[in-house]
Structures are given as C-alpha cells and as structure tokens.
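Entry type: protein chain
Record version: 2
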Amino acid sequence: MAERRFLLAGLGNPGREYQLTRHNIGFLFIDHLADSHGWQVDSLKMQGFYCQGRAWGGQIFLLKPQTYMNRSGECVRSFLDYFKIPPEHLLVLHDDIDLAAGRIKLVARGGAGGHNGIRSIIQHLGTQDFARMKIGIGRPQTSAEVKGQPVDQFVLSRFTGDEQLLFAQRKSLVAEASELFAREGIDICMNRINGR
C-alpha cells in the first residue's frame, strides 16, 4: 500500500519586508512545524519553498508559496499535481481577521471569506472542498477617539511584542492540530481543536 501524502501549505508573501507581518502567519507556523521535526523549508520547486519528511503516519510536505498571496493557488495546485496528493489531504494555514488574535479554528471547506490567498486556491483547484487552519489575528483597534487602521495596512504590519508571545504559545496547538489532521482527518481535528 502506498504511503499517504499530505500537503500543509502556509500562506504569506515572500521578502524580508513581509517577515513577522500578520498576513504571513501561515509562513511562521510552517517554519515552526518544520523546526519541531528538525526540517528546513528551503528547497525550491514550482514557485514554492518546501520540505518533506515522514511524520504522523505519512509523508508530509510543508510548503510556503513564493508567488505572493494573491497567486498562492498556482503553487499549491502545482504541488498537489506533481506529488499526486489528493485535495482532501491538503491543509492550508492562513491568517483570519474575523477571529480573535491567537484563536485557532479548523474548517473542512468554505468560501474565501475575503482572503485573497484562499480565493486563489479555490480558483486553481476548482473546488472549495479543502481543509483550512484559520489563525486569528484580530482586527485593528478602534474606539470613539481613534479610527482603526485600514485592514490592508493592518494585515501587512508587524506583530507587536505581545502578539509574538501569544503566537509562540500557540505553536503546540498548531502542531497538535496538524498531526490530528494527518492521522485522523479534518472532522476529528475540528472536534478536538476548535473552541480550545
């Protein structure tokens, strides 16, 4: 029996100017997952940096598309096709402004929700049926006295020190969710992770 293959794709933008920005949180957690296995996401193929190894009962590919967020689907689709990974074994890690900072939510399918990277993947796969790990970054702060930062500026701005600490604390939950996805599937993963 062939070994099961999984692709975990973290979304972000390439380049130093985007490091540690909220929109790049998918890249951040892909690097954390790689580090936890002693891997490095440094091989370049089909417009993406990736690594592969055996873990969680299968062959795991970790991917950071280098196409810029709005064209993420080009890279993700190429990887699925080249390595013959079925879309049901794809998990996309991405930022979500509608979730409180640090909240992790798994979903099995759905629309883009205003996220251009997810929109691109839906377009290139021709389906909304793929799993996502939404990582909450919150919304810009607003009050009666202070107008909030525009969303496009907010997602491309850097984490605060407190946010960096918060996301460092979420590494273990992201790793647990990733392993559950590979071993047990998205439904069990959602049941055990969402709401924690």
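Comment: The first helix runs from residue 25 to 37.
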